[in-house]
Structure prediction request, 88 residues.
Amino acid sequence: MPRAPEVHISSLVIQHSPDRTDAVREAAVSVAGLDWCAAENGKAVVTLVTASAAEVVDRIALLNAIPGVHTTTMVYHHYEPADAIDAA
Prediction:
């Protein structure tokens, strides 16, 4: 039996070189499902919406590959069936 579609909502902190904030932001916002929320002193807070936990891991790998990024850390993760969100 196939699994019902899920929605995964995550918040991440991207630690990066402070002098690369603009370049990191430009590259990060091209990542599917990512919303850049704030950045200060070499740390950025972003939210990420994906269809699976594997996609979260893949997106973190993409972010870590951006020049100037030191590390990306997941701060929060929530998921539930997509139809539960559509019903709300």
In short: The two ends are 25 Å apart (CA to CA). The beta strands are 6-16, 34-40, 43-50, 69-81. The chain has three helices and four strands. The helical segments are 21-28, 53-64, 82-87.
